[in-house]
Amino acid sequence: MPPKSIAISFAAIILALLAGCVLDSRPNIDEKKSGNVLGSRLDEPGSERYQQTQGIRYEQPLPSPDNPQPEYPRTLLQQHLDPIEVRIRIIVNEKGHVVQVDRLGSNTDRSEFWENIELAVARWKFTPLVRIIEGDGVSTIHSGGAIATYHGKATALPFHQDYIFEFIQVNGNTSVRIKK
């Protein structure tokens, strides 16, 4: 593949990750009975956002490919429940660590689903959201052992993202995939 094609392919992958912010992961599970969990990022109307203005740009955060996905609660597999949806908001600090997980709503009162989401999502990591103000000089942002350099004044910022997880039990198979 010519270098330009590689760059275009790489850009397309990055854009897909930014659009979804939840990575497709298929764990190896040998059990006969299990379930599917689908997750997708939500953009709620009226969500607070950092404002784009002239001379200021933002580098969007990216999720770590190692972020664990929630699992269908094993104790509920025998019940063959209808699909369960749980909406959450995560608060991520300027270092890219989830510091808070809030429940926004669900179509069930079963705490096992919420607990499995909270256990997984609390370990998620992201590259930081970075605000870059045009100007002279160079700034660096340290994140998870990596250093990024920016022209102008760069600042890592906290952010929040909303997600919906749908737990589905299908023929004893399990997977975690992006819900589009």
Topology:
Blueprint lengths: L2 H18 L15 E7 L13 E4 L24 E9 L5 E9 L4 H11 L7 E15 L2 E12 L1 E10 L7 E3 L2
Parallel strand pairs: 1-8
Antiparallel strand pairs: 1-7, 2-5, 3-4, 3-7, 5-6
Explain what this protein looks like in three dimensions:
This protein has 180 residues and is an alpha+beta fold. The protein has one domain: TonB (TolA/TonB C-terminal domain, 2-Layer Sandwich), CATH 3.30.2420. It has helices at 3-20, 111-121; strands at residues 36-42, 56-59, 84-92, 98-106, 129-143, 146-157, 159-168, 176-178. The strands form two sheets. The protein has a five-stranded mixed beta sheet, covered by helices on one side. It has a three-stranded antiparallel beta sheet with strand order 2-5-6, with no helix packed on it. It is elongated. The two termini are 29 Å apart.
